[in-house]
Write a structure and sequence with these properties.
Elements (H helix, E strand, L loop, with lengths): L1 H19 L4 H15 L13
């Protein structure tokens, strides 16, 4: 839960940074989405045990 909140905050920071640098807003949105996808755990890894 905490990692999801941190990922959202970092995504907002990346979006604001992109806008401050004068980049188009679509670039900021794409960058924020990429940060969210990378930062929020999906539960895919470690969700199941190994099959013997």
């Amino acid at each position: 839960m905490i990692s999801a909140i941190i990922a959202v905050l970092v995504a907002a920071l990346v979006y604001a940074l992109c806008l401050a640098l004068g980049l188009p807003s679509i670039v900021g949105i794409v960058a924020a989405i990429l940060v969210l996808l990378g930062g929020i755990p999906t539960g895919v890894y470690g969700g199941r045990g190994r099959r013997a």
